[in-house]
Amino acid sequence: TRYKLKFILFFFLFSGWVGAPLIALLGINAAYAGVVLAKSWMIVEERWPELKENCRYPYSAIGSKAYGPKTRAIVSLCLHTNLIGSCVVVLLLCAQIIHDLTAHHFNICFCYWILIIAAIICPFLFFETPKEFWPAAALALGTTSIAVCVILWEMYKDHISGDFSHVRYPQPSLKTFFLTFGTIMFAYGATASFPTFQNDMRKRHKFPTAVIIAFIVLLALYIPIASVGYYVYGDLVEENVILTLEDGLNKTVIEILMASHLFFAFLLLANAPIQEIESWLKIPNGFNVKRLATRILVLLFIVFLGETIPSFGKILNLIGGSAIALLSFVFPPMFYMKLCSMNDPQWPKRNISAWEKLWLLQVIIIGIIGGSAGTLSALYEILSPKAFIAPCYINLNCK
């Protein structure tokens, strides 16, 4: 699961009820793209066995073997934009939740919470690969699942006890629809990390099955909370749905669970770009001073971005419409079809059926159209003078 469920609901506000089938369609497309990406990595390992044992950047390696070194550079750029940007979103969202949770007890600015949470995260970044902190993934899933159940219960209580006769369901415009297209793509942005996780597995051939199960769980979380939440709150929903709920014990439990989830999600997201940066710098495996310095500098860069653009929604839409659209929807089918079409006497032949090619092509087309429109809409929002929010180091947010 991902922290994205908190703004999946906000997506409905600008897409209307068409958001539900769109969430499902993009979820199915992202799942299929994840499966073929996993198959692509197995093909690469089969043809180039030297990559099996020591490859810190499997996604980039897939692009390189499919289309050459220039593609590898493009994939690396997208990968870093996606995962570093996602880390910024997670950090900001975690700070927002903790700030709301502690507002009645501590007078600490939101901008300061960003620094505090980063300091707490720092020691945990020194684990080498995801296999060294697999409990983080299990805890992230557990905390999110419990939180979703509690959120749905709170929504039900609000619906039966409150007066929602004034709730409106605004008609989406083309501009707002494409703006939030980036949001829904962001919700399926985990694909960028899949090759790294697969590379750490002993039974890598089972990873496609794990991808399918993961996306079934995602859809089971996303669609109910988005549909029920939009039905109950309509245009009253906040960018972070947790802030829409009534204050009380259940809301406090939800905030604690989601803050815990975000903490663990940050560790998983940050690992892939950190490993590739360490590979560029030729930093040896194992704990050493160079690794320590590199990971601290990456964390400081993430903190700087968060303090510069303290509105996570704007970053989310931009990343979702650009880097994630490419990494989760466009590149996987492209690389898979290219690898399957390559011939060598020593390689087993791989054929793709006509219907599978058609499906892969529609995944690519939807990814390109939705990603392009979402990116342009997000840039318009970010550059709009009315939408400007001063950086934390200029104007502290102590609300």
TrEMBL record:
| Record-linked InterPro entries | AA_transpt_TM
Q: Topology with regard to the membrane?
A: Multi-pass membrane protein
Q: Where are the transmembrane segments?
A: 6-32, 74-98, 104-126, 133-156, 176-197, 209-233, 253-272, 292-309, 315-337, 358-380
Q: Name one GO molecular function term.
A: L-amino acid transmembrane transporter activity
Q: Where is the Amino acid transporter transmembrane domain?
A: 16-371
Its keywords, alphabetically, are: Membrane, Transmembrane, Transmembrane helix
Its localization reads: Membrane
Per the database entry, which stretches of residues form a coiled coil? none
- Which is one Gene Ontology cellular component term of this protein? vacuolar membrane
Name the UniProt record assigns to this protein: Amino acid transporter ANT1-like protein
